[in-house]
Amino acid sequence: MIISKECEEAKRAIVGKIIENGTLCRSRFGNYLGIDPSFLVVEEPSEAEVAKDYFGERYLSRFREVLNAAVGKLSEKRYTRRVSIPIWRPEDALSQHPPAITEISFLFDERLHLTAYVRSLDCLNYFEPNFRFLSYALNSVAEGAELPAGSIAMLVAVPHIYERDLKRASLISEPKEEVYGHTNLGTHLIEDYLSSAWHSALEVIYNHGKTKETEWDIFEGQKTSKFIHRLFVEVLKPEENRIHDKAPFTERYGIDYAHDYIICADKLLERVGESILKEGEEYTYAERARFCLKDPVKVDQLFEAIEKLKGDRCRRDCYIGISRPWDLTSRDPPCLRGYQFVTSREKLKGIFYMRSNDAYGAMHANMFGFSLLTKYVAELTGFPDYGYAHFAVDAHIYTGFLDSVKEILYPEMKRKGLG
Does residue 123 contact residue 165 with C-beta atoms inside 8 Å? Predict the structure, then answer.
C-alpha cells in the first residue's frame, strides 16, 4: 500500500515502483513494463475538473446517471455500505477501448472517502486525468450529501509504463516505501494461504475495527458491526491450505457455492445465451457475469475474458462487471462488484473487488469460491499456476459474532476461562 499526501506524490511513487519492479509485457498498444496489482491512497486530494476527452465524458455520463441516488442514500444513512457506482457496463467487454475505472465506492468514516477499482493505468500519461475524475466524483457526492470529503484510494490491477516512455518516466520517479498491515486509511495483508488470509483478516478487524450501525436492523446481532475501511489481501498459494479448521462452511458447500452461484460451472466451456437464474433468485454472481435479463446488451463477460486470455496473456481488459446502475436503489445489492484476471509473473492472478464483506459469515467462502474460479480459468488458458487477491471496501464482523471470532483467534482464553 502506497500512502501519499497528494496526487503528484502518488504518481511519482507508483512510477518509481514500476521502474524498479516492472516486467516486460507485449500488448497491441506497444510493449510496457507492468507490476502486480497496487493499492494507493491519497490522503488530501484537491478539487479538480474532469478532462474533456472521450473517457472523461463517458465517466461523467455514467456517474451522473446515479449521482442523485448515491447522494440520497448517504444523506439518509451516512454509515451505509451500499453506495458503489458502476462505471463498467457488460458491453464494455466487447469494446476496443473500455473504461479504465470500473467501479467507485463511497464509505463514511469521520469523512466521506472514495475507493476506485482501476483495471489498467498508464501511470505516466493518464494518472492525473483519472485521478481528476475521482476527485470530482468525491467532491460531488460529498457536497450533495453535506459531508466532509476525505481520501481517495485506487486498487490498480495493472499499473504500467510503456517502454517508449521509460526515459521520461525516470525523470519523475520517486519510489516510496510501502505500508503493510493496518492503518486507518487501509489495510494490506500478504499471506501464503486462504486459511491464514481469513484468520489474519479476522484478527485485524477484531483488534482494530471501529463499531458502527448497519442497515440490517431487522436481524438480531447484525444491527452493529466492527469494521475496517479498505482491506486488501494477497494470497500467494491459494491451492494449499484452502480451508481453515474453524471455517463456518464445508469444502462441499464451498465447491457447490462456487459452481452454482459464482461460475455456472456446467456452462463454463460455452457462451451463455439464456437466463441461468433459478426460481426465487433475484440475482447471482454467475447471472450478472454471464447473462443478465435486465441488461440492454447481454454479454457473457466471463466467457469473453477466457477467450481473450487464450489469445493474449497480456490482456488488461479481462474484467467482469457484477454491479449494475440499478443496484443503487436495491436494499440488497451484490457485495461483489467485479473481478479481473491478469498476468502476474507467469501466473494468472484473480482480483476480486467487494463493496462490503462479512468477514466471519461470508469472507472465507467467498475467497474459496473466487479462487476456485481463478484456478479453472488458469487451467483453461494454459497458465501453470495462479494467485488470488481480495479487496473489500468495508470488511466487518457483526457484533453478534464477535464471541465466535474470539474463540477462533484466542482459543486458549476459552480453555483458561478468561473469555
Answer: no
- In residues, how long is the chain? 419
In the beta sheet, which residues pair with residue 211? 226
Q: What is the CA radius of gyration of the chain?
A: 20
Residues 179, 175: Cα–Cα separation, whole Å: 13
Give the strand pairing for 32-34 and 2-4: unpaired
pLDDT classification of 41: cutoffs 50, 70, 90:
very high
Strands 186-191 and 181-183: antiparallel
Triad 288, 394, 187: Cα angle to 5°: 120
pLDDT of residue 412: 80
How would you label 313-351 residue by residue, b for 16+ Cβ within 10 Å and e otherwise? bbbbbbbbbbbbeebbeeeebbbbbbbbbbbbeebbbbb
Q: Residue 98 to residues 51, 127, 320: CA-CA distances in angstroms? A: 17, 16, 12
Look at residues 155, 163, 124 and name the one whose alpha carbon lies nearest to residue 314: 163
The span from the CA of 134 to the CA of 153, in Å, is: 9
Cβ neighbours for 174, distance < 8 A, ≥ 6 positions apart: 9, 12, 13, 15, 16
pLDDT digits 0-9 by tens, 359-378: 999 999 999 999 999 999 99
pTM of the full predicted structure?
0.97
Q: What is the DSSP string of 190-256?
A: EESSHHHHHHHHHHHHHHHPEEEE-S-TTSTT-SEEEEEEEEEEEES-TTSS-S-TT-SS-HHHHHH
d(CA 31, CA 201): 37
CB 54 within 8 A of CB 17: no
Strand arrangement, sheet containing 84-86:
2-4, 38-42, 149-156, 111-118, 101-109, 84-86
Give the domains, in start order, of the chain with CATH numbers: 2-415 (3.30.572.10)
Q: Tell me if 355 sits within 8 A of 84, measured CB to CB.
A: yes
Whole-number Å distance between alpha carbons of 230 and 356: 9
Give me the residue label for grid cell 495462479.
386
In the block, residue with C-alpha cell 462479512 = 358
